[in-house]
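WARN no homologs supplied; continuing
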Amino acid sequence: MSALTRRGLLGAATLLASGAHAAEPAALRVQRLAWAGIKLSLPTATLGVDLLADPTVWGDVLPDALPALDDFKGDRYALITHRHSDHFDAKAVAKALGDQGLLLYPASAGALVAPGVTRVRSAPMWEPQFLGGDFVATAVPAVDGYGDPQVSWVISGGGKRILHAGDTLWHGAWWQIAKLGPFDAVFLPINGARFAWRQPAAEVSSVMDPDQAIAAAKVLGAKILVPIHYGVRGADGYEEMADALQRTQAEGRRRGVTVRALKPGEWLDWEV
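OK structure emitted
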């Protein structure tokens, strides 16, 4: 199946999903979790993306409160953008899913295992995955700072559509992804991190910075940008912009992008 055909199928699927709820109040609730994690809640299903609950991944350099993940109800789903331990915490996934939930991962990442999770499925790029509780999730392009396989996720449900972008770099596929909109909210990394873990180190950001996140939100036509993937301080070999959130908010005001800064545990208010 060609990428063009896949995008057409996704467009039809998401239009159907949104149209079915056009006359109803939005039932979807979205909560920001630690680091890059989010939780989407519908009356009969719960879906998490890039769940992180292992305190050893970042230690005390990440001040975010780690979620308990014992409140996933109904049909349970977990999505990951890529294999790195701060985005694929296998124990967190297992805790959220129990023995009945489904782990959905990018086909490009290779087979994944989460102890205790018996249901796993790979998702090819651009092909919509129809899940329970009205969720539809589709892997779309992203670019990893190490060059490892990574995707972003377009997720629709409850009359809303969001994008979660892991810790991607800026790339040229935003205009293609925008065709799958409109997006009620986009969850984008903002910390412009530089790594010294691989040598020789490059003096360039390996994650989108605030200006790039605002530019991506603008291209995507997003109603709301929720910053994720920021707040680490004092990690050896990892340096992020100290004022990333403030810069994102200032650039959003300048360019007319609504930025909603959520603390871990806070829920998104859809009112713009």
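The longest strand covers residues 151-157.
OK
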